Structure formats: structure tokens, C-alpha cells
Amino acid sequence: MNWMDTELELMADASLNRSLRASRSVSGYPGYTVRGEQVLLNMSSNDYLGLSQHPAILEVMREALLTEGAGSGASRLTTGNGLAYVRLEEALADWQNCEAALVFANGYMANSGVISTLVGRGDVVFSDQLNHASMVDGIVFSRAEHARYRHNDLEHLRKLLNNNRDKRRKLIVTDAIFSMDGDRAHLQELISLKHEYGAMLMVDEAHSGGLYGGRGEGLCHELGLQNDVDIHMGTFSKSFGVYGAYICGSRTLIRWLVNKARPLIYSTALPPSIIAGIAKALVLVKEENWRRERIHLATRLFRSLLCNSGFKIGAGDSPIVPLIVGDNETALRFSSALEEEGIAAVAIRPPTVPEGTARIRFSLSAVHTDKELTHAAVRTHNIGLQLGVLCP
Ligand SMILES: *Cc1c(COP(=O)(O)O)cnc(C)c1O
């Protein structure tokens, strides 16, 4: 097993090693995290709406735990399919204005399981270069051809579609909001291409669910495009503050997945307490519009503060604010310096992002105050100067 040490050494030399650090949350303060003895403003969580500690969610989870037990005991096709699952899926289909919905254990399993169930050998998947790893893995599992197009480059996609006209099934997959860049996919144009070339279209709303649309349905709804997307995917682990994921679409799609999707068939159903928590979070996501308004205000403030400081940040209007510093070591030093100032904002490095685009990925939450964000922006500015990321 010596090869592992050798490889790990090489990764460390390139500032690419990763390690698991313990942190814990602060009861009642979802915007903070504790590392060691230090309380940090948490700017690296995906708890965009600040729901992870909502008392109403905790209450229904506690109740489900006490009445129904810790685990579901079996997969959904055997005896793990509690009534709460059925009710939740009805509510999800209604919310997404789709015929049917299906809950998966998490986003990774939903993406990898669904893509590999929709296509196989002889098919082709067109995937944005910056799509989430769970989609990439789905393509690998499927054994379909992987046609990777340059980020948001529709001409490149068109060329690939042209080159693959003879393939049996065609699937275009994209993040709605890109997870490490915070910018949007060009959904309208993707829909046009999908129609033109007879492809299916799958959109991952992991970072747009809860944030866009009148009731938090996501970016497709915000743009009025929901009916042109064949497979809607979203998670309950980010804006919903809980855990799990969903697929919404036609009744036929859901029937197909129930019969074919291996992560659904061969894995234990989520615990009843999680399903209860998701159901309550869905109600809050739909109704508590002020959280959406607040996160968008917070985003505008923080983005403009960083821009005015002279930083080049990623385009877009999402609460994912990437500050690209380039090399891995600078990104790590930037992140450590922020931590010393009481701010948790992690460095994201390859292979999560392309080579040479290491970054600090700030992600904001509705529970962050203007004061906290201003403080964070000032500290970021100072560190940027110290590390030479910003010119004085
Ligand atoms: C987080 C994320 C996932 C995975 O969701 P989990 O529920 O955390 O497994 C999938 N797609 C995107 C775009 C994500 O950011």
C-alpha cells in the first residue's frame, strides 16, 4: 500500500490534500459554526434560507422520531414506504406543477441513479463542463457516451448535438445554478436545442430550489420554463436545511424510475424523521417569502461590497459568490486568514474546479445580517491586499 503515501505526498506538495476537520453547529444560530474553541461566521454552508434550525422542523422531526423510530428498516419497494412518503411526493408534484415526484436519499444518488437509468450504451449525454460530480458519475455509470460542452457554450453544444444525431437516446443535463460558480445555465436556449434535436432535458436545481420562483420552486419556474424541462431534480439538503432529494416529471418517468433506478431499489428508505422534516420544510419554503427576499438582499449587498473592493467575482445573482484567486496555495492561505478573522469560507481546489481557478467560495444565508456581511467583506478586502490578490 506504499503507493498511497507516495500519491498523497505528491498531492500535499501541490496544495491539493484534503482533510476532515471537525466542526459543530451552534444551537439557535444557524449562521455560525464552531471549530475547536473558535466561533466562526459560517459562509461555507448551503443553508441558504437558514431553515436548518427552524423550531417547527425540529419539532416534527422529534415527534416522528419518537412515534416511528430511528430508521425505516427497509427499502421503499418492500416495507420502508411510509404513508408520509406518499403524502410528501404528492405535495412535491403539486409544488413543482408536475404529474409526479419521487424522493431519493440524497442528491448524489438521485443524479447518478436517474441519469444511469435514462440512458445506456449507444446513447449520449450532453453535459456542461461545470456540472456537479454526481451527474458526471451518473454518465459514467450509464456507459453512455459523455459529450462534455464548454461551460454555457451553446455553439459547442450544438456542434456536439450535430455530431451525435445518429445516437439512440440523447439527454442534456445541467445545473440551473452552477454550484462552484454561482452563475446560471442558459435554460431557454437549452430548451430550444432540446426541441430541435429531440433530446431529453434534465435540470438540477440543488442551488436554485427554495431561492427562485414565487414559492421557491426553482429557476425553471422563475423563468416560466417548467413545462419544457423533462426531469426536474432538487435537493432537501441545501435551502430546505434537511436531507434528501427529489425528481419531478411525468407519471411515466416516475414509473420508470420506480422500476429501474438502482439507488431507489437497493437502498433503505430515509428515516421517518427526515421525511417529516422535509415535509415541514416544504411548507416553510413555499410560505416564508421573506427568507427569499432577505437572501437576495444579502446577496446584492455582499456582491457589491466585494466588487467595490476591486475583486473579480463570478457573474450572477445567486448567493454563491466565488472569489477566484487562481493557485491552490493562495486559496488555502486566504481561507486560513479568513478563519483567523472569525470567518469560515473554504478554499475550493481542483478537481472540484478546473486547474488554475482555485477559489474562496462564499455562500450566503438569509440569517446573515448586513453587519456580519459588511464585516466579512472588510476582512476579505484586507486579506486580499495582504496576499497580493488585490492591488493596492
Ligand atoms: C449538493 C449537490 C448535489 C448533491 O446533493 P446531496 O443531497 O448533497 O447529495 C447534487 N447536485 C448539485 C448541483 C449539488 O450542488
From TrEMBL:
Transmembrane segments: none annotated. It catalyses: 6-carboxyhexanoyl-[ACP] + L-alanine + H(+) = (8S)-8-amino-7-oxononanoate + holo-[ACP] + CO2. Homodimer. GO terms for biological process: biotin biosynthetic process. Catalyzes the decarboxylative condensation of pimeloyl-[acyl-carrier protein] and L-alanine to produce 8-amino-7-oxononanoate (AON), [acyl-carrier protein], and carbon dioxide. It is an enzyme of class 2 (transferase). The modification N6-(pyridoxal phosphate)lysine is found at K238. It comes from Paenibacillus endophyticus. Belongs to the class-II pyridoxal-phosphate-dependent aminotransferase family. BioF subfamily. Its cofactor is pyridoxal 5'-phosphate. This is 8-amino-7-ketopelargonate synthase. Pathway: Cofactor biosynthesis; biotin biosynthesis. The lineage of its organism: Bacteria, Bacillati, Bacillota, Bacilli, Bacillales. InterPro entries: Aminotrans_II_pyridoxalP_BS, Aminotransferase_I/II_large, AON_synthase_class-II, AONS_Archaea/Proteobacteria, PyrdxlP-dep_Trfase, PyrdxlP-dep_Trfase_major, PyrdxlP-dep_Trfase_small.
